């Protein structure tokens, strides 16, 4: 009897520890919208027709990208020691979405976009634009490492994924 009780207790402890270790710690990150528009203010290249994420974790990275003067002013006001910026190029799509929430799971950053789909009877102009949104959030806690940034539609479909080092 004593062996069965000990085995049962040991099994329960192992189950609890296993489930606690396998679940990812979740932290919702408050974010600010730095800028957004229906057309990114540069020439659209062929690869820009699909959704993608560009992570900007250091001021020096801004010079590697082509931004309008207006965006450069917004980006230059950000303290990259404390904050992180994500440029979400939604690709050339007939619909667009907006960032609904940003969630950090260990070394994974999930960016959930709410889809905006015109309702029945709504008039939609035919054509494709490269909509974008630039968000920033405070780098709280430990970062200094490689992170997977995942853009996900509210339906759960993963649209884009990139791995970047964040100091």
Number of strands: 9
Pattern of helices and strands: HEEEHEEEEEE
Number of discrete domains: 1
Number of helices: 2
Q: Into which percent range does the helicity of residues fall?
A: 10-25%
The description of the largest β-sheet is:
5 strands, mixed
Strand content: 35-45%
Q: Unreliable runs, pLDDT <50, ≥5 residues?
A: 17-22
Shape: flat
Q: Which value, in Å, is the CA radius of gyration?
A: 21 Å
pLDDT averaged over residues? 76
How far apart, in Å, are the first and last alpha carbons? 56 Å
Going by helix content, strand content and strand pairing, the class is alpha+beta
Q: How are the strands ordered across the major sheet?
A: 1-5-6-8-9
SSE map:
Blueprint (H helix, E strand, L loop, with lengths): L1 H21 L3 E4 L2 E6 L14 E5 L12 H8 L6 E7 L6 E10 L2 E9 L15 E7 L6 E9 L4 E9 L1
Parallel strand pairs: 6-8
Antiparallel strand pairs: 1-5, 2-7, 3-4, 4-7, 5-6, 8-9
How would you describe this protein?
With 167 residues, the protein is of the alpha+beta class. The chain has one domain (24-166). Helices cover 17% and strands 40% of the residues. The chain is built from two helices and nine strands; from the N terminus they run αβββαββββββ. The chain has helices at 2-22, 69-76; strands at residues 26-29, 32-37, 52-56, 83-89, 96-105, 108-116, 132-138, 145-153, 158-166. The strands form two sheets. It has a five-stranded mixed β-sheet, with no helix packed on it. The protein is flat and about 75 Å long.
């Amino acid at each position: 009897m004593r062996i069965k009780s000990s085995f049962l207790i040991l099994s329960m402890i192992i189950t609890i520890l296993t489930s606690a270790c396998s679940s990812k710690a979740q932290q919702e990150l408050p974010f600010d919208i730095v800028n957004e528009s229906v057309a990114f203010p540069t020439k659209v290249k062929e690869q820009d027709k699909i959704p993608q994420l560009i992570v900007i974790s250091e001021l020096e990275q801004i010079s590697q990208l082509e931004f309008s003067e207006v965006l450069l002013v917004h980006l230059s006001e950000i303290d990259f020691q404390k904050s992180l910026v994500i440029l979400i190029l939604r690709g050339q799509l007939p619909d667009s979405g907006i960032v609904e929430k940003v969630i950090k799971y260990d070394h994974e950053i999930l960016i959930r976009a709410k889809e905006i789909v015109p309702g029945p009877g709504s008039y939609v102009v035919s054509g494709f634009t490269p909509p974008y949104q630039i968000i920033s959030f405070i780098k709280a806690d430990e970062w200094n490492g490689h992170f997977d940034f995942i853009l996900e539609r509210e339906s759960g479909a993963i649209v884009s994924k990139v791995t970047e080092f964040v100091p």
